[in-house]
Write a structure and sequence with these properties.
Helix content is about 35%, strand content about 20%. With about 250 residues, the chain is an alpha/beta fold. The protein has a seven-stranded mixed β-sheet with strand order 3-2-1-4-5-7-6, sandwiched between helices. The protein binds S-adenosylmethionine.
Length: about 250
């Protein structure tokens, strides 16, 4: 899972005993060599879906890390692209590896729970970061996203179908979440990262409550499961005029 350029087990343990923000600061130089970076196959499929739903002018990659989603936005946004993350280390790496082709790119250090923008974007994307928010924090994050979107703007992100209990992936994620829960019961600061807490049904309901209309797009590149349901979907949540809860 980890390439030779990736972090050692010891480095991973030190990172996992830090806060989320500081853990990513430490991981940043090697992050692109870990499985935690969103794979290009997912980025490309979301990019292709956004080409079909776009075009867009100004895009924001929420929890951008080293800029995986910024590259997607650069393909579909005509005017400007912004990456935001609260880890200064991840932003440092992102700035250094940023490609120069495409629209201008800005990097802003901010917490997704308190974004420093107002109605500035017509597209917000996010990849691989929702596990860092506890379920009760998601409505606030969705409210923040709504507030930085212009009316009619789109919030888009991929969702993988959860593995079935008959697959090793199910037990791996269950084990990971269990270890993190024990770690967080015993150790401060917390490192919130739970794979199984982010469920499509709940997320759809919370997005609607926050003032979005939700459409699901199957990403055909990943095929379907035995029951015909898509393995990977893109959520397209469009900001409505309906106000979210205050
Ligand atoms: C698994 S990485 C994903 C990075 C990138 N989006 C990708 O797909 O490769 C999660 C990122 O979320 C960021 N993050 C977590 N909680 C955050 C918060 N409350 N505000 C801003 N960024 C946050 C972390 O710093 C980290 O860079």
């Amino acid at each position: 899972m980890f390439s030779p350029e990736g972090p050692t087990l010891r480095e991973l343990a030190v990172q996992a005993l830090s806060s989320v923000e500081h853990g990513y600061d430490l991981l940043a130089p090697k992050f692109d060599h870990t499985p935690f970076r969103t794979p290009d196959s997912v980025l490309d499929a979301v990019g292709a879906a956004l080409v079909r739903t776009g075009p867009y002018d100004d895009g924001l990659d929420l929890c951008c890390g080293t800029g995986a989603g910024v590259d997607v936005l650069a393909r579909v946004c005509r005017r400007g692209v912004t990456g935001t993350d609260f880890s200064a280390g991840m932003l440092y790496v992102a700035r250094r590896r940023a490609e120069t082709a495409g629209p201008p790119v800005a990097w802003v250090r901010a917490d997704a729970r308190a974004l420093p923008f107002r109605s500035a974007f017509d597209l917000v994307v996010s990849f691989g970061a929702f596990g860092h928010f506890l379920p009760h924090e998601l409505p606030g994050v969705f409210g923040q996203v709504r507030s930085v979107l212009r009316p009619g703007g789109t919030f888009a992100f991929p969702v993988l179908a959860p593995p079935r209990p008959s697959s090793p992936g199910f037990w791996m994620l269950l084990g990971f979440d269990a270890v993190m829960r024990v770690r967080n019961a015993l150790w401060r600061p917390r490192f919130v990262m739970y794979y199984r807490a982010f469920r499509l049904g709940d997320v759809g309901r919370e997005l609607e409550r926050a003032g979005f209309d939700v459409t699901l797009h199957a990403l055909p590149e990943f095929g379907t499961r035995g029951d015909g349901s898509p393995r990977v979907r893109m959520v397209e949540a469009r900001r409505t005029d309906r106000p979210g809860p205050s």
